[in-house]
Specification:
Elements lengths: L1 E4 L2 E4 L5 H12 L18 E10 L5 E12 L5 E8 L4 H17 L5 E8 L7 H15 L8 E5 L5 H15 L20 H19 L8 E5 L3 H12 L3 E6 L4 E3 L6 H11 L10 E2 L11 E4 L8 H6 L4 E3 L8 H9 L3 E3 L1 H4 L2 H15 L5 H26 L3 H20 L5
Parallel strand pairs: 5-6, 5-7, 8-9, 8-12, 12-13, 13-14
Antiparallel strand pairs: 1-2, 3-4, 4-6, 9-10, 10-11
The chain binds nicotinamide-adenine-dinucleotide.
């Protein structure tokens, strides 16, 4: 069945990212009162730019790549969102990712709108010089819609601090002055922020700590299972471990490690940095990957892949809290089951927002040309994430809904109220 949504349609069965986003909005609409009349603003991106990127390859031939920058909503401030270099990038996906940035920034109460960019390319197939030329031409093509007061890109899948440095340099060359605040996720000596790399994992821990307090769960000796031991999972695991919880299971692409007495996370981090995997750290404690979700534990942290919590996992998992470090680890039908089973799910838009919070700090520091210590950054992040959990918790209690729906309600209320107060130009 097709459902007409003024100007943009979605299908009930459709599974594209944008389709899923539209369905999420419809779920929130009944909670918005008179503001729901304004929801159409969020059902389409404010601005979508598709660019052709010609690149002179090392062999002298010219190849063309398709690039995008979508600014979904700019009501509360400049756009914020990463740039993805991946062969599957397409407009539908970039639109959805930009919309989720709108929701995430508003749920965290950061003064940003949502944006996202991407280039359909496999960056691993390019030489460093080709990658630089692609990045610089992409930046030049989107140059007129980005800027510290307009839209601030950041790294995402397939991009990194070096690519952000090239973007910053290209934008600066076209502006005639050094503009560090045009992108975040830069190398630290180029205006990047301390604490950025560990920020997402730290945010996962903070949101877990806050939610545990709300449900009277003592994290001391609480059992924690972590899927994914990269940037996000390893830092979250370390903070739980350092603060008295027992991280009893860690899974990565290579192995699933289970130690009932708790794993020495600092040692495991050292090992996995050296070997690029956890397999072999303690071979006798490795278990089948499929057993991961069956382990009795109070806290589960999916911090690797999308869609790993399906209906079956939701029906059988024995957890009190699920912390969504990854983006989209829980399928919609599974979400409803977890909600009925009264398992508290801290949704990705809040749980993994530590990264965008420190990106916000990077932008603030660049604009002020004054840089904070890592301790200051961690303290300020703690306040923002703590407040976000408190706001969402209150909203969920008032609206008698899940934390995910509450985060969406709160975000939509903030954006639509801001638009109501700004009015529509020309009036
Ligand atoms: P990463 O590449 O550093 O680590 C990914 C981890 O997942 C690795 O340990 C890898 O071994 C593991 N993994 C891969 N396939 C697996 C499988 N089949 N089973 C179990 N583990 C598997 O990535 P990251 O930066 O830690 O990001 C993890 C997730 O968090 C992603 O969904 C990402 O989109 C999301 N996220 C990251 C950030 C950030 O700042 N890094 C911010 C927001 C959201």
């Amino acid at each position: 069945m097709n459902t007409m949504v003024k100007g943009l349609t979605y299908t009930e069965q459709g599974t594209t990212a944008w389709n899923n986003y539209l369905k999420q909005l419809d779920k929130v609409a009944p909670h918005l009162g008179e503001l729901s009349e304004r929801l159409d603003m969020l059902r389409r991106p404010k601005r979508s730019l598709i660019v052709d990127i010609p690149v002179i390859m090392d062999d002298g031939t010219v190849q063309h790549f398709e690039g995008y920058r979508v600014q979904h909503n700019l009501t509360r401030g400049p756009g914020k969102g990463g740039v993805r270099f991946h062969p599957d990038v397409n407009l539908d996906e970039v639109m959805a990712l930009s919309a989720w940035m709108t929701i995430k920034c508003a749920a965290l109460n950061l003064p940003f709108g949502g944006a996202k960019g991407g280039v359909r390319v496999d960056p691993t197939q390019l030489s460093k010089r080709e990658l630089e030329r692609l990045t610089r031409r992409y930046t030049a093509e989107i140059n007129f819609i980005i800027g510290p007061q307009k839209d601030i890109p950041a790294p995402d899948v397939g991009t990194n601090p070096q690519i952000m440095a090239w973007m910053m340099d290209t934008f600066s060359m076209n502006s005639g002055s050094t503009v560090t605040g045009v992108v975040t996720g830069k190398p630290v000596h180029l205006g990047g922020s301390l604490g950025r790399i560990k920020a997402t994992g730290r945010g996962v821990y903070i949101t877990g700590r806050e939610v545990a307090q709300q449900i009277d769960l003592d994290l001391n000796d609480a059992r924690v299972c972590v899927q994914g031991f990269g940037n996000v999972g390893s830092e979250a695991a370390l903070l739980f471990h350092e603060n008295g919880s027992k991280v009893i299971c860690v899974q990565d692409h290579s192995a699933t490690l289970y130690q009932e007495q708790g794993i020495d996370i600092a040692k495991l981090i050292e090992y996995s940095k050296h070997h690029q995997k956890i397999q072999g750290f303690s071979a006798k404690d490795e278990i089948l990957a499929a057993k991961f979700w069956q382990i009795p534990a109070e806290v589960f942290i999916p911090a690797a892949l999308e869609g790993v919590i399906d209906v079956h996992v939701a029906q059988t998992i024995q957890a009190k809290i699920i912390l969504e470090g990854a983006n989209g680890p829980t399928l919609t039908e599974a979400d409803e089951i977890l909600s009925k089973r009264q398992i508290t799910v801290v949704p990705d838009v809040i749980c993994n927002a530590g990264g965008v919070t420190v990106s916000y700090f990077e932008w603030v520091q660049d604009l002020a040309s004054y840089f904070w210590t890592e301790e200051e950054i961690n303290q300020r992040m703690d306040v923002i994430m703590k407040n976000a959990v408190a706001d969402v918790w209150i909203k969920a209690t008032q609206a008698e809904c899940s934390l995910r729906t509450a985060a969406y309600i709160l975000a939509c209320e903030r954006i639509l109220m801001a638009r109501k107060e700004r009015g529509i130009y020309p009036g």
